[in-house]
Amino acid sequence: MPQNRRERLHDAAREEIKTTARQLMAEEGTAAISIRAIARRMGITAPGLYRYYKNRDAIITALIVDAYTALGDALDTVLQSFPAGQYAHQFIAVAEEYRRWALAHPVDYALIFGNPIPGYQAPPEVTSPAAQRALSPFGAIVQAAWEAGELHPRLPDAPIDEELHCQLAAWTDRSGYTFPPHITQSFLRGWGQVQGLTTLELYGHLQHLLDAPGRLFRAETEAYVRQLGFVMEQVVR
User: Fold this and answer.
1) How many whole angstroms separate alpha carbon 126 and alpha carbon 142?
2) Within this chain, do residues 38 and 71 fall inside the same structural domain, yes or no?
3) Structural domain contains residue 58
4) For helices 56-80 and 87-104, what crossing angle results, to 10°?
């Protein structure tokens, strides 16, 4: 059903509030978000914002969901651009898009992966499904390769301890995957590598070591893909 004028104005105001909050984050960091600061920047009274958001935390939550959604959409677009079966190529391309998105959207990336915002407690029933968008494209590739028999992982050097094994199995089941826990462990290690190198570069910790951090990212991603057991002949530079 088409929105009426009042609904359109209400939605536009909510978007303006989020845009203003992002500007504050870009200029002063995530801790700068407050009802008063947003209202002052918009030229309205602080109580006026409560018609659109319950409190500051509701604004932050909306921004977090938006950021995860944008990142997930970007990763899904890249994943869907490859023919089915090109698992190694897909994984590397999605990882590189993860890095590219972070460097292009540092404010949003810092919001979802940076320092905690003082006093903010994320509602897990809202943010956890959104956060899964950042990981699910990688998981979908691993799951598809596993089902197709195109994943040949190296066995762990040592058995996984019982408690960790149970945690890995539980997460795998909750996420709807069917690969065994040792692949889950390796998969999460690889995602941590993507996340870690991206964060180091974003915050300037690699630039004084390397002229082109992207080359390290690519090399390490390819090395991880081999370790996980993807067929590297599929990779086309």
Assistant:
1) 26
2) no
3) no
4) 140
Is 104 found in the same domain as 156? yes
Range(s) of the domain holding residue 19: 1-53
> Can you tell me the distance from the alpha carbon of 135 to that of 60, in angstroms, rounded to the nearest whole number?
21
Q: In the numeric block, which tokens belong to residue 8?
A: 């359109």
pTM above 0.85, yes or no: yes
Structure token pair of residue 112:
């979802």
Domains of the chain: total: 2
* 78-128 pLDDT, tens digit each: 999 998 889 999 999 999 999 999 999 999 999 999 888 889 999 999 999
The residues, any chain, with a CB within 8 Å of residue 108's CB and separated by 6 or more, are 22, 63, 66, 67, 70, 71
**And the tokens for 22?**
């992002």
Please return the burial class of 178, using the count of CB atoms within 10 Å of its CB with bins 0-12, 13-18 and 19+. exposed
Alpha helices in the chain (DSSP H): 5-28, 35-42, 46-49, 56-80, 87-104, 106-113, 124-131, 136-147, 162-174, 181-202, 213-228
Q: What is the spatial distance between Cα 144 and Cα 153, in angstroms, rounded to a whole number? A: 14
Residue with tokens 């845009």: 19
Q: Is the Cα torsion angle 207, 212, 214, 216 positive or negative in sign?
A: negative
* Chain length of the chain: 237
Which residue's structure tokens are 């993807």?
230
Query: Which value, to the nearest 10 degrees, does the dihedral of the CA atoms of residues 175, 134, 191, 115 take?
Result: -120
